[in-house]
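Researcher: Next sequence.
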Amino acid sequence: MPSVRTYNLDAIDISGIRALLWEALSLKWAKEGHYPVHSNYRVKYDDICISIAELAAKKNIIQNPPIPQMQPFTREISALSKQRIGIVIWELVCQQILYIDLTQSSYSGNHGFVFDITEYGQKVLANGKPIPHDPDGYLDYLRHEIPDIDSVIYTYVAESIHAYNTNLLLSATTAIGCASEKALLLLIEAYIPFLPTKKEQTSFVQKTKGRFIKNQFEEFQKSLGGQKGRIDRELVDGIDIIISGIFELLRQNRNSVGHPTGKQMKKENVYASLQIFITYCKRIYALMEFFKSNYCTTNNIKTVSI
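Model: Next structure:
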């Protein structure tokens, strides 16, 4: 009877297992030549478990178990670790990224299961991180990229991510639209003291205060056109696509599902919205920081919430 080398991952919680799973899958498909991801990507349940365990040991997250003196030996992971990995893998099945290949699987507990990648899963995995299917990883990345992100924006993004991962696509669309609107309102508010004269500031506030977000943004675009010469070029390059285009996309989607239109959202479209949101929000915060660093303090009117 062969001896056993057992990896203990019990100290790693579900979010940690989830992050390791994504990395282990990426490393495995690259090692096997499946890059970019294609339909031949296939992985056995036992292989996933061992890949995660070895990766955790390599990262010094867990202790590398000693190699048994008796040869040959098998590799195993603890029962609780298997349970947690099974939960995370089943999430990917529920999210239609992986599916159980019934023609390849043999049913002896979980051990014989073989997972293939779906067409949708190919698109998801090929995009790399941050991916909405790893909620903790996505939100950690958001905080890393925008450390001072507004709590309201963060709350709505988190809500959208969790709704997306439970296939509540209308809710996810509404929440990411709310996050986008809050970001734009903060940008417009930060822009007011950047205007060079009190007259321009007062006029801008009169045109935007209490208006719908679409109208406020249109006024912002008009005003910003005359101020671009004062703004660093890298911040205004591509602004019509990065901010204007994405804002309009998220706003229209939110309006479509936020009213009883009967419109349905495809999962791929919601995924795309979540993928582009961080880039969009980063540019907004970069502009806000520039505005605040270049306020025309001698002409500022009293800050007005709009």
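Model: DSSP finds twelve helices and five strands in the chain. Residues 135-299 form one domain.
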